[in-house]
Amino acid sequence: VMACECATYGMPVITSDIDVCREIFGGMHNVVLMPNNISQWNAVKVVDRLLVNLPYKKNSMYYAKNTVDKEIKIIKQCLGNWI
To answer: Which of 19, 44, 76, 78 would suit a FRET pair with 52, their CA atoms being 20 to 30 Å apart?
Structure first.
């Protein structure tokens, strides 16, 4: 959760290259997904890549208007005439 919050507020994040991280952080320019095998990556290059683009803008994809509002819409659609 903390990595999501950091990324949302525009902080640079380095995290594992696993399915859930690809789904959550996809499209965020301030996040680098790294292979879990440390021999396959160069930390200096990754940090340099993140630092060159500072400051990052906040990512709004997880703001309430983009999450809660969509969830309420889906619930209302599912409930249909019941509400």
So the answer is: 19
